[in-house]
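Q: Given only this backbone (271 positions), what sequence would you predict?
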């Protein structure tokens, strides 16, 4: 889903400046009776993987490398267990304390006018290269370590929305591809196991429709994808006691979002 965010934000900023010039007297009258900082704000269309900023992400990686360096994160080609410390050394990170936002290339290039939301997971696109892509997948995907690190990273952020000092609610986005049976149940169990439900957050389910990354979401037929997307929902709605985790997820879900990449021409569709 490509978007010229930088240019759009500049245009919106200029429009707001023009509005303030033309309506400054009206704004002063309206603001005299209310405090904007006391209002409840809602962040929408924010992916859960981007809930943490780059600096906090680097701080979390350093903390895990220092305190949990012995955690087994994968199996090597020879079948031996690979710890977090060994994995980071394989990526060329000999001393995690030297990591920073710039060395990992977590910020988009200042010369890029278009930025894909899934750029950071591709070894070809992050400014930090394959090293950064693999590190991000380890910490920001539920498929690695059953999402343990990912949950530990975002849980304080979600809980912080419920604090009395916070005036911001959220609608974080989590993806469902529909091409893997049991995907709904796996997501629901992950949210339940790590207690990622809070009063000021609701979930938005994002379904991908992107031609050029469809190779990662293989399905034999479109009907198979639709069955995987919607059949679990009907069952959980009809028998909530049989699917308690999924039923709880549905109660805390407010929207579905189907996104696509509008820039390239779509060459093909599922049969």
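A: Predicted residues:
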């Amino acid at each position: 889903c490509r978007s010229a965010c930088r240019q759009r934000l500049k245009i919106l900023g200029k429009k707001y400046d023009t509005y303030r010039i033309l309506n400054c007297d009206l704004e002063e009258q309206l603001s005299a009776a209310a405090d904007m900082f006391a209002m409840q704000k809602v962040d929408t269309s924010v992916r859960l993987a981007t809930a943490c900023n780059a600096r906090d992400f680097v701080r979390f990686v350093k903390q895990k490398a220092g305190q949990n360096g012995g955690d087994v994160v994968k199996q090597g080609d020879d079948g031996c267990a690979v710890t977090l410390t060994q994995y980071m050394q394989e990526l060329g990170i000999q001393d995690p304390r030297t990591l920073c936002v710039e060395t990992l290339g977590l910020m988009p290039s200042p010369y890029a006018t278009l930025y894909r939301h899934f750029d950071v997971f591709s070894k070809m696109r992050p400014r930090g290269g394959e090293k950064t892509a693999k590190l991000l997948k380890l910490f920001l995907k539920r498929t690695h370590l059953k999402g343990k690190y990912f949950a530990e990273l975002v849980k304080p952020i979600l809980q912080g929305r419920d604090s009395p000092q916070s005036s911001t609610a959220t609608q974080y986005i989590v993806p469902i591809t529909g091409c893997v049976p049991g995907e709904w149940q796996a997501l629901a169990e992950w949210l339940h196991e790590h207690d990622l439900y809070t009063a000021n957050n609701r979930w938005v389910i994002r379904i991908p429709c992107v031609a050029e990354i469809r190779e990662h979401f293989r399905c034999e037929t479109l009907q198979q994808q639709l069955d995987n997307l919607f059949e679990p929902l009907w069952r959980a709605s009809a028998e909530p006691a049989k699917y308690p985790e999924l039923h709880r997820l549905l109660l805390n879900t407010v929207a579905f979002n189907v996104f696509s990449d509008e820039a390239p021409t779509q060459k093909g569709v599922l049969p």
